[in-house]
Amino acid sequence: MLNEQGEVIGMNTAIRADAQGIGFAIPMNTVQRIADQLVTKGKAEHAYLGVQMATLTPEVKQELNNNPNAGFTVSDEQGVLVIRVREGSPAERAGIRSGDVVKRVNGQDVATADDLQNIVEATQVGSTLQIDLKRDGRDQTIAVQAGAYPVEDQQ
After folding, report:
1. Which residues are registered as beta bridge partners of 45?
2. Whole-angstrom Cα distance, residue 35 to residue 44?
3. How far apart are the C-alpha atoms of 153 and 57, rounded to whole Å?
4. Whether 59 contacts 81, CB under 8 Å
5. Secondary structure, 3-state, 67-104
6. Residue 37: which residues within 8 A CB-CB, separation 6 or more?
7. DSSP label of 141
8. pLDDT tens digits, 68-102
9. In angstroms, what is the C-alpha Rg of the chain?
């Protein structure tokens, strides 16, 4: 995929001709990172924490706190809410729990689930992330070593 100046900005992965030419592409920085991994390691690995998360908003807070089956309550109205932690994941081993609200990663503020996803995606497998979060109204910092996304999940 090229921009108007003829610079490569991405790699097309799929185009739906029957849907008015709608296409999907991988950004060039991601293509370069994966290509570098393939050359140096012979395989591409994706950093992984093992959490299901959502951007916390006042509406999400109210919905959770009114749900008797949620299993936790939330006092914050901003940040990234950990909804579920996958068993055996790097997040579980580090002690992250459902109901935690992530505020910063490596000193960088995270306001949305996309922010957190982008930080993890840009991280090398095996790197340690310092995650500042709120749990039960108290600030905590937890170190999580990013793992490789499980191969069985990629198939």
Report:
1. none
2. 8
3. 29
4. no
5. CCCCCCCCCCCCCEEEEEECCCCHHHHHCCCCCCEEEE
6. 43, 44, 45
7. E
8. 888 888 888 889 999 999 999 999 999 999 999 99
9. 18
